[in-house]
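Worked Example 4.2. Read the sequence first, then its structure tokens.
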Amino acid sequence: RLYRGNSEFSGIGFNAVDVWMQYLDQGWEHPKGQGRLDAKRKVKMLCGKNVPMVRVMSPFFARWYEEVFFDKDPEIQKQKKLDFFTATDEMLHDFNNCGIYLELQIMFSIDAFADLGHTSLHDALTNLKSLSYQRFKEIAEAIAKRYRGWPGFIIGLGNEWDLFADLQHLNGVLNISDDM
């Protein structure tokens, strides 16, 4: 159950999959320097439209997390994280100022989860020491710690995590064979 204040909350929201990426403004979807401005226009357009909730997605690809969150150089990584959270803070403030709850999906797809550590999906999900798992944990803990208690905020750990779990897919978690 989801609560807003002391009462149960329900409502229809929608996905704005690229808004978080636009706030990060790395030039992935729009020319660098234009993404955040476009995202702010979208949020402003939603103000006063009785939209209770919007779900935004994290960077779509693991390599994009490497561009905005991780680096081998500790000083560069520190600056990347500062920039990442400055942009995310701004996005949360903008949605909060419009009275819109925001759901942050911090991992767009299960394939991206495995790609964080350049491991197989099976290893990423079953080996708690894998680089994929450790990086995901670092991202999730940093976001949860920073935004704990933030009003109008929900954290989602992933989008469609079970998409390949029960399918005979090249990257599927369950590689069921006839001889099992």
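Now turn to a second chain, presented in exactly the same format:
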Amino acid sequence: YFMRNELETKPPTEEEIKACASVLSRLPERRLPLPIFKEICKKVVLTAFEVVSLRTSSDGQTQVLLSQRPDSDLWYPGEMHSPGVMLIPSDKDDENFVTALERLKVTELEGLQTSQPMFVANKILNTKRGVENANIHWMRVSGEPTHGKFYDIDNLPDNLINHHKVIIKTAYDNFLKDK
């Protein structure tokens, strides 16, 4: 145990740093292997494109779209979340939110008609994954999702990811001003 613990806290040598950089340089831009992503998340500020998807129900209630993360999720197993994606290097310059939104429409907003996202705020959030610069937006949606379901904004599930409570409240407060 002592040896393992000593190795974990010992700073890497210059040779180890060069070897790590060499491996990283050979990885594709789009998605990192999970063990590497997990470690990088602890070392950098991630940029999240958060889109709180809202609709008005037939009885006049504002509802928000939430999906459940799989039980195998590394950071938030089985927890509910609002749609969002991390910006990645292959998102196009000057269009990174456009390409991020396109990815989101395929993965989490399929089956919905959407308005243009309305920018609300940037918030720096400490999450289980690491520090995130959350670019918070809201948009109106209609239709029925193929992923997730709608919840009344004043009756959100108990297993909602903690920092998504902040994201949803921030977006909803701005949405109310626009109503």
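Notes for the reader: The mean pLDDT is 90. The first strand starts at residue 46 and ends at 56.
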